[in-house]
Specification:
Structural class: alpha/beta
CATH architecture: 3-Layer(aba) Sandwich
Strand order of the largest sheet: 2-1-5-6
Family: Belongs to the creatininase superfamily.
Largest sheet: 4 strands, parallel
Keywords: Hydrolase, Metal-binding, Zinc
Protein name: Creatininase
Distance between the termini: 26 Å
Cofactor: Zn(2+)
Number of helices: 8
CATH superfamily: Creatininase
Helix content: 25-40%
InterPro entries: Creatininase, Creatininase-like_sf, Creatininase/forma_Hydrolase
Order of helices and strands: HEHEEHEHEHEHHH
């Protein structure tokens, strides 16, 4: 059992010497083929896989994230994207850290699947250090950051990698959902490539023509469940190894970053 929500308080208290993992997702449009919960599902499932490798505990997922940026998430142009403000996200993450540190955890990992969460969570981490001192370790990892080049070469052996910003609702996320939650993928609606050039600036208000009409920022054709398993396994293994390095915990499977 790794999910805190399914534990009694006694079972939870017995885990405080280990790593507490907070999955950070969002409620954000992911094209016509993926659910609004895509980021949250990915964050939750990879957190579970990491926790199983390091005997950690997974806290309830943050199902709302910081404001969707147009050129990494599509922005507010699509119904269903429900954003938190910067201050709210910082306060939320700060409150969670206060509670976990107060419960006795000294090793905490934020595992994010929403690009925009990085800045507010990092700010909350710094604030926690000021309040609680340095007798604790807090780490933030996006699931995609530690993926090896060899993994990316395998996933994109037959198609072109557009870059992480434009991978929103494209091959990697679609493949992950095909593997982790296939019942939620509308495979008949995979978005194909649409003419789209990212400008070198941001502006408000956004115009509908600023983003591909389907909401995905790159082609999702070429996504498969098999690729999703490769990505999920590699991300979980690499993040577990980060935990071993940063927190000094043991990893159940012997692998190298």
């Amino acid at each position: 059992m790794v999910f805190a929500a399914n534990m009694t308080w006694e079972q939870y208290a017995a885990k405080t010497d280990g790593v507490a993992i907070i999955p950070a997702g969002s409620c954000e449009q992911h094209g016509p083929h993926l659910p609004l919960s895509t980021d949250s599902i990915i964050a939750t499932e990879i957190s579970r896989m990491v926790a199983e490798q390091i005997d950690g505990i997974v806290l309830p997922t943050l199902n709302y994230g910081y404001r969707s940026s147009p050129y990494s998430g599509g922005g507010p142009l699509f119904p269903g994207t429900v954003d938190l403000s910067l201050n709210t996200m910082v306060e939320l993450a700060s409150n969670l850290l206060d509670e976990l540190l107060g419960d006795g955890f000294r090793k905490i990992l934020f595992l994010s699947a929403h690009f925009e969460n990085q800045a507010p969570i990092l700010e909350a981490m710094h604030l926690a250090q000021r309040r609680h001192g340095t007798d604790n370790q807090i780490v933030l990892a996006n699931w995609w950051d530690p993926l090896k080049d060899s993994v990316m070469d395998e996933v994109f052996s037959d198609i072109m990698f557009p870059g992480w910003d434009l991978e929103h609702a494209a091959v990697t996320e679609t493949s992950l959902l095909m593997h982790l939650a296939p019942e939620l993928v509308h495979a008949d609606k995979l978005p194909a490539k649409e003419a789209f050039a990212v400008p070198p600036y941001l502006r408000v208000p956004l115009q509908p023509s600023d983003i591909p009409s389907h909401g995905a920022l790159a082609d999702a054709v070429g996504a498969t469940s098999e690729k999703g398993k490769i990505i999920a396994d590699a991300a979980a293994t690499s993040i577990a190894e980060i935990c071993a390095y940063e927190f000094g915990v043991q990893v159940k499977t012997s692998v190298q970053l």
